[in-house]
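Methods — Computational structure assignment.
A single polypeptide chain was analysed. Its primary sequence is given first, followed by the predicted tertiary structure written as structure tokens.
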Amino acid sequence: MFTKLQSQLQIRGLFLLFLVTLMAFHGVLARATNGLECNPNQVKMSCIMGCFSCFDTYGVDIYNMAACCRDCRLTDADIIDEGPSKCSTQYIRSSWLKRLG
């Protein structure tokens, strides 16, 4: 009986270790996404506002604001898009470019 209880505890311990490891990697993957690309501490506000103007014009389904903010952060540019008058087709999703022509 003692060895059976000991093996059950060992299996539970390994399962718990697996779950903790899985949760740790899940957190790393969540931080690697584009969710915080428009962080004002890392990107110039003028560039974010240009991206936001185009985002406001086209909407969430068409305009990829995370990609625009990522390019703002990587290039350290003052302005990439100056919406609504100048919005780059680079950040408009390709599926919509085909529809819009």
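Note: DSSP finds four helices and no strands in the chain.
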